[in-house]
TrEMBL record:
It comes from the Bacteria. Gene3D superfamilies: Divalent-metal-dependent TIM barrel enzymes. InterPro entries: MbnB/TglH/ChrH, Xyl_isomerase-like_sf. This is DUF692 domain-containing protein. PANTHER family: UPF0276 PROTEIN HI_1600 (PTHR42194). SUPFAM superfamilies: Xylose isomerase-like. The lineage of its organism: Bacteria, Bacillati, Actinomycetota, Actinomycetes, Micromonosporales.
Amino acid sequence: MTGPDGVGIGWRPEIAGFVAELPGLRFVEVIAEAVPVAGPPPDGLTELRERGVAVVPHGVRLSLGGAEPVEPARVAHLAAVADLVAAPLVSEHIAFVRAGGLEAGHLLPLPRTREAVDVVCANVARAQAELPVPLALEPIAALFDWPDDELDEAAFLTEILDRTGALLLLDIANVYANARNRGTDPVALLDGLPLERIAYLHIAGGAEQGGFYHDTHTDPVPAAVLDLLAELCSRHRPPAVLLERDGHYPPAADLRAELDAVAHAAGFPVVT
């Protein structure tokens, strides 16, 4: 399987200078919708590519779980970004973000029904037909389950992956958040997933608020999430793991230490 390897970080303009100075960085991920395709890549991405750092576009607006077919223009943009940055693959979420022409502004969870599986698979097939590289699908963090669920999460995800041939982008922080909020065992989900289909992992920080654990991307990665990463890698070490950080950026020394902690938990060389 061709894709990223080692430790990466989500590329954001606010930390572009920091990212450029990481000697052992293997890949970055960019929000696909934030990349214009009418000109060159954003400042810094070309230099990273010339260093051998892979760039993975990460979509947030396709709405693969929406009842309406995915919009061709959005798929075309994702494909164009993949070409622009010579991406080894692209990724998107198993979620919906719009319905009836209304934008939610947030990734929303699907009911785990067979009808929802059919919808996702149809939309993934539409996207795959236009994409120049493989597609990895990411299950999201959700604060609730729909009352008409027919499948558990592992069965739901496995059926989608089997039917589409897509890869899996597993967010270990989402696994932790969902298990903690549902009162379930996160390791049980890992044991039910086809771990060999993982293209790469996400990991991020979170915080307790209002009786729920929120996957914030603005807090440090808790020790329990790093432990879950290590547990996963003891079963099947995926080729790559990426730290997501979206605001409240800590001092550079703290962010380097967090990256090194992620590398250590996953058994990868440090990037700093």
